[in-house]
C-alpha cells in the first residue's frame, strides 16, 4: 500500500492520462473506421481501393513501427510542433481504425441486400442509404467486436510510455528508477488500474449491446 499512498497523485495522473489517451484514440478510430468501412462498400472503385490499402497496410504494420513513423516521420516532413500526446492519439487511432473498419464492414454484410435496394428504389443516395438504413442495423452486430477492440486499444496505450506520454506504463518506469520500490508491487497496482479501465469499457459496450438488441 505504501506505493499507492506515497504516490497517489502520480497514479491519479497516470490513470487519467491513460483514460484520456484511450478516449481520444477511440474517438479517432471510430470516426476513421466507419468512414473507411463506407469506402470499402462504396460503388466508387477509387474509394474501395483506398479503403483496401488503408486496412491492409495498417493491420499488417506493427504498432511500435507506426509510433516511430508518426513521431519521426511527421517532423521530417516539416510537420513540427505536435505534442507527444496527440502523436500517440494519431498512431493509436489510425492503427485501431483498420480493425474498426473490418468490424463495421462485417456488420454491414449482415444487413440484407434488399434493404439497400429498397432505399435506392425510392431515390436515396448511397450516403443516405448507408447512414440512415444500413449502419443503424449493422451497429447491432458490430458492437461486440468493437468492444473487444476498444479494450485492446486501452492496453495498447502502454506503448505510448516509450514516446514520452504520461500514462500508467510510464509511471512504472518512473517509480522503479527513482524510488526503488518492488517492481512486482508497482506492476500489481498498475495492472489493477488497467483492469478498472477495461472493465468500464466492457460494461459500457454490454450496455450498448443490450440497448440495441432486437427482441426475438
TrEMBL record:
CDD domains (alphabetical): TM_PBP2
Top-rank taxon, per record: Bacteria
UniProt subcellular location: Cell membrane
Keyword annotations: Amino-acid transport, Cell membrane, Membrane, Transmembrane, Transmembrane helix, Transport
Start and end residues of each ABC transmembrane type-1 domain: 15-205
Gene3D superfamilies noted in UniProt: MetI-like
Topology of the protein relative to the lipid bilayer: Multi-pass membrane protein
Presence of keyword Transmembrane: yes
Pfam families assigned: BPD_transp_1
Principal place of residence: membrane
Keyword NADP: no
PROSITE patterns: ABC_TM1
Xref: InterPro entries: AA_ABC_transptr_permease_3TM, ArtM/GltK/GlnP/TcyL/YhdX-like, MetI-like, MetI-like_sf
Transmembrane segments: 21-41, 61-78, 85-105, 183-208
Family to which this protein belongs: Belongs to the binding-protein-dependent transport system permease family. HisMQ subfamily.
Protein name per UniProt: Amino acid ABC transporter permease
Organism: Streptomyces luteireticuli
